[in-house]
Each structure stands twice: as C-alpha cells, then as structure tokens.
Amino acid sequence: MGRAFVYVILGGGVAAGYAALEFTRRGVNHGELCIISKEPVGIPLGLRQVPPYERPALSKGFLLPEAPARLPAFHTCVGANDDRLTPKWYKDHGIELVLGTRVKAADLRRKTLLTATGETISYKILIIATGARALKLEEFGIRGSDAENVCYLRSLADANRIVDVMKTCSGGHAVVIGGGYIGMECAAALVTNRIKVTMVFPEEHCMARLFTPKIAEFYEEYYESKGVNFIKGTVLTSFENSSDGKVTAVILRDGTRVPTDMVVVGIGIRANTSLFEGQLSIDKGGIKVNSQMQTSVGSVYAVGDVAAFPVKLFGGDIRRLEHVDSARRTARHAVTSIMEPGKTGDFDYLPFFYSRVFALSWQFYGDNRGEVVHYGDFPGARFGAYWVDKDRLVGAFLEGGSREDYEAIANAIRLKVPVKDLAELERSGLSFATQASQQIVPDSGLLTEKPIYVWHATAGVVVAVSIAAFAYWYGRRRRIL
Questions:
Q1: Which intervals hold domain Monodehydroascorbate reductase 3-like C-terminal (predicted)?
Q2: What's the pTM?
Q3: Closest residue by Cα to residue 434 from 417, 454, 450, 422
Q4: Please, what are the domains in the chain?
C-alpha cells in the first residue's frame, strides 16, 4: 500500500504552510504536493484537521483571557499579511494533507517515507520541515512532569492545555521554569490571567542568549512591577505532589520550596533530525543545507528550525535560527530553488527576532557579538542597543520603536555601517541608524511583505510618470517637426 507524489513536505509547522503557498504561486499541479504532519487530529475545539498555523500566536493571543486568538484566524500565512491557508484552501489547490501521521523511517536513496501505519509514501523532491521539539524535564533527570498541571508549549494541543489549567488557577500561583522566549511570554500571559508568577532559571538574567544585563534589568523590573518574582541562578530539582498527582510545589537546587498551582516549562528545544542522522550532514544541531536550502542529498531540502544554513551577513557562517521569520523565508527560498533551478540566487537572510509582552514590543536584527552600545530612554521604554564588531555595525535591538524605526535599524545592519566612534554612536542613538538607512539598499524583504508592496507601488508610479512625460515630450516634438 502506498502513494506517490512529486513533492512531499514532511512536517506541518509554519515552514510547511509557507512552502505550500509558494508552490501554488509557482505553478504546482493538483495532486503533485503532499504535506505529512504528526500534529494530532481531533484535538479540542472540534477540529478534525489541523493544517499549518502561525505558532507565535500560541504564546501570545491564544493565551489572552478576553477575545483570545482561535483558529482559523491564525492559519498560515496571515503572519506575513498573505493568504490564510485553511483546510478548504489546501483542498481547492489539490494539496494532499496527511495529518495525525508519524513517519517512522525515511529511505533517502529510495526516496520513500514509511509511516507508523505501514504506508509507504514516495517522492521525487522532499522538503524536511520537521521543526523542533520542546526539551522535557525528564531529559535532565527530573521526574513527574507528566502531571496534569505541568505544561509545555510547542503545539496547539499544548496551548489548549495551558488555557484549561489556567482556568482552574485564577488567583493562584504558577512557577515558570526558564527565562527565554517561552518563559517570558507565558509569564506575561499568566499575569494577564490574574495568576501570580515566579520565574526560575539558572542564568544571571532573563533572555540571556540575547539581552545584555542592562536590557534584561529593564524587563525584569517591568515584570516585577506586574507582580512577577524572579529566582535566578538556580534550577528545579524535584516536585512535590498531592495525593491526586498534581504538583503542589517545586523544589530548587538550594532546597527552596516554591508552592504552586501550575508549572510552565520552557527550557529550550531540540531540532527533529533523528530520521535523517546517518543519511544527511548534521551541523549546529540541525540538518546542514547550502544557500539553496539543499541538503547533502540533492533531492532533499530542509527549512525552518531544523535547517542549519549559511548566513551571508556573517561571512557564510552556518547558523540554525529558531524563529518564525527564518521558517517563513527559508521555506519560500527552498521552493523557489526547486521550481526554478539554476535561476535562484543564494539565500541572503538578515537574522530577526521579536517579542510582544504586556505593553512592550521589541525587535532585534543581526548578531549580538562584539562591543555593545546602549542608547535611549530606558525609564520611558524607548531604548535600544547596537553591537559593533571590527568597526562595523553587526546587531541592533530596539524597544518601543515605530515601523520606520525598525526598518531603519534593519537596513543599518544589512549595510554593516562603519562605526568610527562608540561615544558618538551612543550620543546619536536611533538617529545613527535612521541616517544610515537613507543610503540605497537592496530589497531585503524585511519585517513583512507590506513594505515591499509599497516599494513596488512607488516604483510603478515613478515608471508611469516617466512614460507619460516621455509621451508628452515625444508628441510635442512630432507636432513641432
């Protein structure tokens, strides 16, 4: 028993949805494309099918107590102001969805995938979009995270579980394990749901992989003003449980006991590469690809969290970037490379991260290496930082900026603007990037597609005016002659 397709996307996350949209725009025929996803079918809310959706919503709008985000509102590709890919959209475009299905083996030489139900699915071109999984406490020797009030966040089912548990804890306490993206965004959501929060993480400050101590201090003080308690420099070692198996307290390494009504764990992710180890090159914890998103096997591509690709801005250094923007853009580039072989340029990506919590909103572009220069009004929640390496701007962070401000810092990083004087850079602050970004830069597809559309519209007007002016001049010349 088996089925055959020209193109198969393995994985049902953000990258899969954006790849599907790009395939349709580049002329894929009905019946040629299949998406295989192990995302459960028949999860709460009565959904029989769960095609790709925008996962950032899970730690933001989905957890709101009032007017929360719900499907189909955040199916891909609404995150880029594009078509919303509902189940009907896939059906209308002749794309086969194989949902709730786990692939247990992949034979890249034979170009076949074997599902857990025993079906063989063959392909000519495979796109691996398996993403990553949340690290579990058991992997660090902590037992008991299967308790019903211990939550992780990676899927719609996880988000539904958090919502259900929060409803039983209103006015109670929660412990958030981890000070990264998931920890910070879930802590904000818990507070918004009137739950007291204690955050526990081993680093000296929150978002340690990105924030400087000065930036982290601002956010920690803001969170504390909302009632969040931080316990830093330590880790969870065990749970206390009630007779019905629920966690009632967490025990930390120094013996501290923190009573709680629920636990949310956000301690990182690991790329889903196990099916392909021994068959594909692995680097930086992901599947290594070239600048076309092509793996060491020519008929196989990898995109999203699982892909480790060369970043031109960093001299071709291989990076695996765990962010939705990277997933969207690597997916589209891979499909372009597949559908237009030999005509597609190298992937030129500007690393981008963002978050929105409470009334705060920040964006970061580039790399946080080298010397850091802070600027702006920290008390007023409008501040930023630059990173300078070898006298060039390589990274920029901004809290509380406008769209134009974010475009300015993005352009400045893409230009790798020279920096002669760090003190002057600090005094200039945001205006340094604003002035630098006024230089002509290539179309980079930053932020969302909307700026590109505006650019094209403006260019169209310029061309139209130029043509009209030429026609007027030529007409006058003929009359004179």
A1: 350-433
A2: 0.88
A3: 417
A4: 2-132+270-339 (3.50.50.60), 137-267 (3.50.50.60), 359-436 (3.30.390.30)
Per-residue pLDDT of the chain (481 residues; tens, 9 = 90+): 689 999 999 999 999 999 999 999 999 999 999 999 998 765 555 556 789 999 999 999 999 999 999 999 999 999 999 999 999 999 999 999 999 999 999 999 999 999 999 999 999 999 999 999 999 999 999 988 889 999 999 999 999 999 999 999 989 999 999 999 999 999 999 999 999 999 999 999 999 999 999 999 999 999 999 999 999 999 999 999 999 889 999 999 999 999 999 999 999 999 999 999 999 999 999 999 999 999 999 999 999 999 999 999 888 999 999 999 999 999 999 999 999 998 999 999 999 999 999 999 999 999 999 999 999 999 999 999 999 999 999 999 999 999 999 999 999 999 999 999 999 999 999 999 999 877 655 444 444 333 333 333 333 433 333 434 434 443 443 333 3
